[in-house]
Amino acid sequence: MKTDTSLDDIFSRFNPDLGNDTIYMDTFAQKLDAVDCMKQCTKHQIRAYRYAVAGALLLGMLLGGTSVWYVLSLPVETFDIGIHISACPSEFSGQHLRIIVLALISALMTIGIVNLIGTIQDLLTDTRSRWQVMNCKAV
Q: Quick check: 138 pLDDT over 80?
């Protein structure tokens, strides 16, 4: 059986230049430092996101409880819209207007809280990332 020696010839002639070990180790160390810096940045961001979620939860519970207490403590005559049509939708809305108002207030507060926390989080993240880029030697 005839063997193909062309591959053996190619591998036997292959003699790559490995270069300087110190240059390789320096660039490798810089890359490892960059990875460590990114891990630290990610840890800080995750911690900040957890604080933001906890803050939004507490603020939502406080404002939600306050609005529920306020709407339910108002007299029923406050929500009397004065429409006395016997149509079914207006009767439904007249009877449940307190709940409808409460749902609208809750929806608006939810949107406001999410936007407020998101804006604060973006500002803090931008400030932290600038600081970390300036102080991280690997980046």
A: no
